[in-house]
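Pasting as-is:
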Amino acid sequence: MNFTYGLIAIVGLLVAASLALIVLDPQEAPESRAMVVPETKIAQIEEDLSQLSVNPSILPSITNVGDSLVLEVEFKDDDGNVVDHVNYDIFATQNSDSILSDPASHRHPGKYPIHESSVLDDSLIQIQVVVQGLGHGDDIFGPKGIETTFTITPVIAAQTATSTEIKTSDNSGMSMDCQASLDCYTPSIVTVSVGDVITMINSDSTAAMHSFTAGSVDGFTPSPSGTFDTGIMSADDSFEWIPESTGEVPYYCLLHTWMQGTIIVE
């Protein structure tokens, strides 16, 4: 009896399988199911994105006047971990003029965009970073338009001071010939920078006394400017002057007014 019931059960299963094959169209492929991100997961991504902090990194760390602003933008979560696959726009203005505009930027692991502006002056730079979501292509999650702004003030690069010597020429106090050849002082025209050390030396081998006096000469009438004045210098005396502003500084000798020179400060 048990054998009979078992045989009936097996036959029933075969009949059911046959009916299923008859109902199923062999040309119809099973419909694929799209992956659905749970609403709770999207909400979590949105929450994480809203908590991202924007950390600009200036390259190099000091931004100098006359150079370009070069920076990298990094994103971190509340635990200080770097977050990649961030889509963002970055803009910068100086004096209300656009100096940087890089929309549709993407921070990818191992490939971080470096943003570079046009040349800077000494006014405040305003930088805006707008986060546009996490992910790639059409798979962007999280809210768009999260803005972070910050400012940077460029600095004037420190320059290394150089030393320049100006000497009196031999026999320059005995003859006016050096006036025509413009070599009463050597060199008679020199270009220096603000902060440089200018050393003025009475090196006339005839041991004549001279001076380096800032100002101009009209004919034989001197007009000192007060910028510097060595006073009367004996042989081998020297005097140092450090310019603090740009411009042309003419000078002459108090005792021999045909001796004239110019210092150009840049």
